[in-house]
Every structure is written in structure tokens, then in C-alpha cells.
Amino acid sequence: MRAASGSTTLGLGSRDETWDAAAARKALHPDDYGKAFFWRDPNGDPETLAAYKLPFASPGGGLHAVWAGVTAAAAMWGDIFPREQLLAELPDLVFESPGEVAA
Questions:
Q1: What share of the chain is helix, strand, coil (3-state, %, to 5)?
Q2: CB-hemisphere CA count at 13 Å for 37?
Q3: What DSSP character marks residue 96?
Q4: Across the strands, what pairs with 53?
Q5: Residue pair 101/10 in contact by the 8 Å Cβ criterion
Q6: CA nearest neighbour of 39 among 64, 7, 5, 10
Q7: Which residues contact 26 (CB under 8 A, 6 or more apart)?
Q8: Half-sphere exposure at residue 19, Cβ-oriented, CA atoms within 13 angstroms
Q9: Which is deepest, 1, 22, 76, 82, by most CB within 10 Å?
């Protein structure tokens, strides 16, 4: 069993913002884990960082999605799960422009 995670209402940082997944993971507050990762182990403790995979958001300047993080997570999804699950479980994140999320 797998569980999609992640917020679809986060603003999007600048398209040229650099992405450092390890730094983002270290800087996130536990209250933001469910918003900042695309996947959570449904059998894991949601209060622990170990339960989450595929980070895409950074807390720097307020929690926001980082375009390079979104694309890196999407690229890694296929290494972790079958492609069919990408379409079935990955939250629909379609960004219009920095700071806006399509409805």
C-alpha cells in the first residue's frame, strides 16, 4: 500500500531557484512533512522524517514548492514505483506562475 502526500496549494518559487533535497529535508519542520513530500509510507509514523520520500518544497522564505524539486521528485518516482502509480498517486501540481497554483 502506498500513500500520496504533498500540498497542492503551496506557492511556487522562482523557476531558477536551486534545489538541494538534503538541505530541504533537514530544514523542514515536522508540521510541514505532509505538505513538502510527494509520498508518505502509510505504515510509517507521520511524525518522523523517515516516513516520507520525494521532497519538493523548501521552508526558506516560507514553505513553497521548488520547481527543480518537483521535477527531481517526478523523475525519481519511476525508480521507486511503477509508472502507472505516478499517474494514480502523484498529486496534480500544475503551476501557472510563481506564487500561483492552478485550481
A1: 35, 20, 45
A2: 25
A3: E
A4: 39
A5: yes
A6: 5
A7: none
A8: 20
A9: 76
